[in-house]
Amino acid sequence: MSVISENSPASPATTPERKRLSLDWLGVMPFMIFAVMFLVLPTIYLVAGAFQDPQGNLTLVNLANLFQPQIIDAYWISIKISLASALLGAVIGFSIAAAVVLGGLPSWIRSPLMTFSGVASNFAGVPLAYAFLFTLGRTGLVTYLLVNIFGFNLYAHGFNLLSFWGLTLTYLYFQIPLMVLIITPALDGLKKEWKEASLILGATGPQYWRMVAFPILWPALLGTILLLFANSFGAIATAYALTGSSLSIVPIVLYAQIRGDVLQDPQLGYALAFGMIVITGVSNGIYIWMRARSERWLK
């Protein structure tokens, strides 16, 4: 009888534990509230608006309007910028992380690098745009130094910060640190025994990377590239502050449709946002799936 009473649901020994677990949820309530208010509800509102006309009736006209030439061009430009910044950020970020984790650099470099990467990966928007204008603009500091010290004019040789490659270069400021943060744990997961076994069996360094390391890291690499793609695809503040309306990417076109004075069409703006949600959602979904696959090997 004593055993039954100790394990019964009404046992006093389990009541404090249940109360503690219920109180633990209070710690994550602020996160849940913010997520619902600023992520879930706005997303539902945008998706619903994409399938409604101004009177609130169901329609597919808004989605059909996404196939207008100027809208397709905006999506294509956004995809190209996002893909370029994702690929370049992945290559450069992977090289930096590999040099620190697997290379012969001093161990003390890792801590400040990760700290800087954590800060820089979240430095975007208007401050980032102004930083690049003050640095690489037509009257920026670096532009001025190159002209007066080396006699080299960036803009005379075709460079333009307010262009495709200018915006891509600006995005790299937060894409490279984000790549470093995400790929570093994957590189840490590569076991030294794998490389030692490969070398004992007669493999060279390049063969080890081609036949052992990269196949293991490939899911993490591909997933991170997709995350970087989604990260830049949805950025608007940096692009708008840097280029204004001179570069027609989807976030700027969306902003013009919802808040613009001339091109105002909120329903089309909702449809544009819905298209962005689909693209970024697919990218993030594949990233999560690929990340889970890579972690099986790296545990």
Brief synopsis:
The protein has helices spanning 2-7, 15-50, 61-64, 69-101, 110-120, 126-136, 141-149, 164-188, 192-200, 205-233, 237-243, 250-259, 266-298.
Plain-language structure description:
The protein is mainly α and 299 residues long. It is 75% helix and 0% strand. It has 13 helices and no strands. α4 (69-101) packs across α8 (164-188). The radius of gyration is 25 Å and the shape is globular.
Compile the SSE list and pairings.
Layout: H1 2-7, H2 15-50, H3 61-64, H4 69-101, H5 110-120, H6 126-136, H7 141-149, H8 164-188, H9 192-200, H10 205-233, H11 237-243, H12 250-259, H13 266-298
Helix pairs in contact: 2-13, 4-8, 4-10, 5-8, 6-11, 8-10, 9-10, 10-13, 12-13
Key features of this structure:
single chain; 299 residues; 0% strand; globular; mainly alpha; disordered N terminus; 13 helices
